[in-house]
Here is the input.
Amino acid sequence: MTQAQRIGQLFMGGVSAARPSATDPRTLRDRHVGPVMLTGRSSAGTTVTRKVVDGFRGQADTVAGHKVGLLVSTDQEGGQVQVLSGPGLSTIPNALTQGGWSTSTLRSRAAGWAGRLKSAGVNLERAHFRQRRLAQRGVRRRVPAGPRDDHAQALPRAG
Here is the structure.
């Protein structure tokens, strides 16, 4: 890899999941951006999202005759934080609901969500697993950390 390609692998480029601009693939290619983050909201489903992602993958750098792998991420935590929806994708409950599930239920459902995201071309999930773990440990109340109430903080359970 050239120095520019190595540097580009360190930066994640954000692109609209619903309406990537016509210049996004070229910009990502020219800047040698390694990972891509699908942002905003899209109800297009897995098939359409996969076509968008494959378009970005087609612009990935080639080194020694091989395409450099492209990491594609999104925020798909559940609750109000779910960038991708539509055909082929299911609604993911919020972290507090997930935290109340047994480990086997959570693993089973997470495997299903992961499979659907993989079908859409996503291969890196950025979910805040801390939220789920806090909920499993007995969250007494939630403190919103943002306008969408998408992050929870736990207070220790009394007594």
